Amino acid sequence: MGDRDPDGWEQLLRDTARGGAEQPRRIADLCVRMLEVSGAGISLVSDTGVRGVICATDEVAMRIEELQLTLGEGPCVDAVRHGGPVLVPDLEDPHEVATDRWPAFMGAAAEAGVRAVFAFPLRIGVISLGAMDLYRDQPGRLSDEQLSGALLAAEGAGIALLATQATSEVEPGGGQPSSGGYDAQVHQATGMVMVQAGVTIEQAFLLLRARAFSSGRALPEVAADVVARRVRFDAEDK
Amino acid sequence: MTTEDHASGRSVGAPDRERAVTEMFVTLADTLVDDYDVVDLLDRLVHACVLILDVTAAGLLLDDQRGHLSLVASSSEETRLLEVFQLQNNEGPCLDCVRDRTIVTSADLEADAGRWPAFVPQALAAGYRSVTAVPMRLRDDIIGGLNMFGSVSRPLADEDRRLAQALADAATIGILQQRAAHRTSVLAEQLQHALNSRVAIEQAKGVLAERHNLSMELAFQMLRKYARDRNFKLFDVATSVVAGRVDPGADG
């Protein structure tokens, strides 16, 4: 853990965290600048497949997203299904070729000039929002530091997607990622708020963030109050 | 159910302990052949620690690959214990053990207050007097730590230390799934999957705690019992609970 620079990344993500519909694109651009990848794309994905492309930094990245949308298979489809990243440092690695995980995707991606692809689910527990694909035109694995950056970027992109999908006037409180630490109570409180306010888990998470934002308090503090049953959310809070 | 063995401080006697150790390793062996639930395995492991080692609480913290340690399993869901585990993102024996790649112990936390000025008062306030942190090793990498607390000031016996390291090593294998471990990317894939599963479980605990007016501890027990009775994965049950498809608290 010691030789990584997550704080630098968190700062960068915060700087790009102006929110709004452009936020996923800014995060994708940030990945290209910081992670030595050729391009990045973000899609909405459900368990059954890719539902729509949100953004892509270049034509190849767009092609990667569209291929998975059309074919219904590929690393980001698997990342969503599995709930963890799918990292393929070399599409032509004999082991990958032999495994033949995505028969149609592999050939088409190679034809488009893709040699390495790294897919990250955009997920907060059971909340599944989409996936982020990074690609390289040369083989090569992500260094520990790059992986760390990509995971933070995925976290930020997930929250940005959640905010843009919210239909209500809920202000998500900026798109900054959490401290990165494991904050059990934030997630416990999300589940409680879902039941209290009679909303979806996604809306509950946004309500919690909005309450923290509007009261000028840290999210974990508000969450601790909810878990301790000092604070309740009602249906009117929707 | 179990009687306190005052000579050793363990919660079970020698024959029971042997049985518990055997059961734990049989469970671990099963994971290597079947499609198994990694979070449930880690949960069983921390409970086994409390049962067979001279400790009162145990937790597993994984490197989240974003610069923090993240709790994935704990022998109790008690908030103060979770906070003491969590606190160690800044300082503490578990952070030291991961950073220095070695077992870190304090047989007397009060006497070691200067070593971890922020951590020790919190640990003492939560009722703990001794601590042991064992690294989870994978070749050159450290993927996390097994963190254990005792309620009395006493060093962990050498035998217990060795067993703790064996359990930590077994947990590492469990996370990696031996069959796929030759792929370098598997570590990240599995770690992140385990971490996300834990987040899903917390969300589901919140839903159950609110719906049935339960403590988080009881909500987790309800979730876990439902999953184990039906041989479902905790992550899948958590997802179904949040989606409103199942309610483990409903009668019948």
Describe the structure.
The complex is a heterodimer of chains A (238) and B (252). Chain A is an alpha+beta fold. Chain A has two domains: 6-165, GAF domain (Beta-Lactamase); 184-237, Arc Repressor Mutant, subunit A (Orthogonal Bundle), CATH 1.10.10. Chain A has helices at 6-15, 23-34, 59-71, 75-82, 94-99, 103-111, 144-165, 184-197, 201-214, 219-227; strands at residues 39-46, 49-56, 86-88, 116-124, 127-136. A five-stranded antiparallel beta sheet of chain A has the order 2-1-5-4-3, with helices on both faces. The longest helix of chain A is centred in the middle third of the chain and has 22 residues, at 144-165. Chain A is elongated, with a radius of gyration of 18 Å. The N and C termini of chain A lie far apart (40 Å). Chain B has a domain at 14-181: GAF domain (Beta-Lactamase, 2-Layer Sandwich). In chain B, β1 and β2 form a beta hairpin. Chain B has helices at 14-31, 38-52, 79-86, 93-100, 119-125, 158-176, 186-212, 216-230, 234-243; strands spanning 57-63, 69-74, 104-106, 130-138, 141-150. A five-stranded antiparallel beta sheet of chain B has the order 2-1-5-4-3, sandwiched between helices. The two termini of chain B are 27 Å apart. Mean pLDDT of chain B is 85; it is low at 1-8. Chain B is 50% helix and 14% strand. By secondary structure, chain B is an alpha+beta fold. Classes of the chains: A alpha+beta (238), B alpha+beta (252). The interface between A and B is large, with 47 and 47 residues.
